[in-house]
Amino acid sequence: MHLFSYHNPTTIFFGKGQIIAVRRAIPEKHKVLVLYGGGSVKKNSVLDQVRAALNKHTFLEFGGIEPNPSYETLRGAVELAKREGIDYLLAVGGGSVVDGAKFIAAAVPFEGKDPWDIVEKHAPITKALPLSCVLTLPAAGSESNNNAVISHTAKGIKRPFSHPLLYPVFAVLDPTTTYTLPLKQIGNGVVDTFVHVAEQYLTTPAQAFVQDYYAEGLLKTLLEVGPQTLQHPLDYEARANFMWAANQALNGLIGAGVPHDWSTHAIGHELTAMYGFDHAQTLAAILPHNLCVRQKAKRAKLLQYARRVWQITESNEEKAIDMAIEKTASFFETMGLKSSLAKLGVERDVIEKLPARLQEHGLTALGEHGEVTPVVVKQILKASMDA
Length: 387
Prior knowledge:
Elements (H helix, E strand, L loop, with lengths): L10 E4 L6 H5 L5 E6 L3 H4 L2 H8 L4 E5 L8 H14 L3 E7 H13 L9 H4 L10 E7 L9 E6 L4 E6 L7 E4 L9 H19 L7 H23 L4 H14 L13 H13 L3 H15 L5 H10 L8 H18 L6 H4 L5 H11 L13 H13 L1
């Protein structure tokens, strides 16, 4: 196991009816900006519950944050927060709204010329507004980590950034807020969570038994409750376990002391920027083929995955690994997503265009050991196009 430091300061309020916790968790002295996306939080009464919880606070609202939050939209919230003296942010929605809140939190006190430098140039963050969230779409895990991904529409790029000051103070996780979500978003969330776990688990052995068994437990939970969430949208226990699994997948625990491989995410971000695909859809179309192309380097963990997660008993190890990868792709299809670029109808010129974009952005040594070069990316893309 590698050396690591672990700290997660986010308080979790979990379960039905927990939105009221907002009232006591945010001191009344703060002037709050409530952030949300489209109209779903209005239709499902979540925003009304938040307003009721804040009835003794001074607060304003800013809506319209996109599923891939754009710098252009977020700048409007930054300007509003500065103008109105906002000193606390409350994100109400999915991971994209939470990610947007993290950018706003860093951008409001930013003293540089262009807040986009925080994302693209890693400009120093020396202070940030406190932020919290009421989560309505489990997937990103952004509600209890310090990471965010922001798009710049004009530039056609999508970039991650992070900082210790951007952990939410608290997160409300009420599974009933997910009942009215379209099934497509639930499928996306399950797959997004699955890949978050996979990119911290399907790397190389680190003798990290706790992290491995924890990751395998999360994957098996998703395999079990994922289809249940589609078949029985009002099954509280299924939704609760999915919501908690999504949180645990990316709060730092299973990734502590082990190698990480975020190459599928890096490729996926480019696909979203190029074609507008949902984030989870890009992951579903890339991960199986990434694993296939790189299965020699990942052999030990892939075999472990086959045996422990999929319960594959095939004695031929190569066949067992192939079966596990095939089952992974099939699971993504079960959740309503396409498991290849070919099925998405992408033109073959992506094989040349996407690696060039990665190279332009300096992303030429991805993977747990930096072995995913543009050449390897081309192999992954070709495998996905040929599937």
